[in-house]
Amino acid sequence: MPHPGRPATARGEATRAKLLDAAEHEFGEKGYHAASVASITRRAGVAQGTFYLYFPGKEDTMRELVRHMGRMLRRTLAAAAEGAQDRLDAERLGFQAFVRFACEHENLYRVVMESQFVDEAIYREYYEGLARRYADGLAAARDRGEIHAGDPEAQAWALMGVAHFLGLRAIWAGGRPDPAQWEGALAFVHRALAPEASAADEAAQSGGTA
């Protein structure tokens, strides 16, 4: 079935947004397979036939929600890092912003995780897109001498794993991560990325001479 395409009017765009919002809640609360087009349209307050004016099927709403999550997250992280002093500070701000985002968009977070069992391609697209942008930022920071001179792609995937499980723990804790565990995680990330100190720096810190 051909994709209906984006709405041509503001009213159509508003209806499409209502359907996506309803799908987000249905998938997040019930799971993809328990949700239905009928339950989505009922929650959105539109006729069931209206759904197919905007989406070929239920899978397409999930794909769009995963892409929507990726766009929102990238904007959130970019905004959080704007006032950072350096890359290490940007990582701290970014991790804090990510955990807040995960707790504020719990349903979307669950949609992304479930998408791997519905459409692995969109699941991989989501994480691979984030990883590419993350690695680019880390590479630039490495070239400026702000972080450890490691493989930025490997660093990106490792840091995304840390962020993912911090987000899960925060959701399971009702949006209130344990302060001590949170500080411990940030300290771990800082030590992993901090640039290696020179002999002169280490001597200065210890009160000796190089």
What this model shows, in words?
There is one protein chain. The protein has 210 residues and is mostly helical. 73% of the residues lie in helices and 0% in strands. The protein contains 10 helices and no strands. The model is unreliable at 198-205 (pLDDT under 50).
Q: What oligomeric arrangement do these chains adopt?
A: single chain
Task: Please tell me how large the radius of gyration is.
Answer: 21 Å
The percent of residues in helical segments reads over 70%
Poorly predicted sequence stretches spanning 5 or more consecutive residues: 198-205
**Separate helix tally:** 10
Shape summary: elongated
The share of residues in extended strands comes to under 5%
Structural class: mainly alpha
Topology, number of strands: 0
**Topology pattern, helix = H, strand = E:** HHHHHHHHHH
User: Averaged pLDDT, please?
Assistant: 88
What is the end-to-end distance? 71 Å
The major beta sheet can be summarized as: none
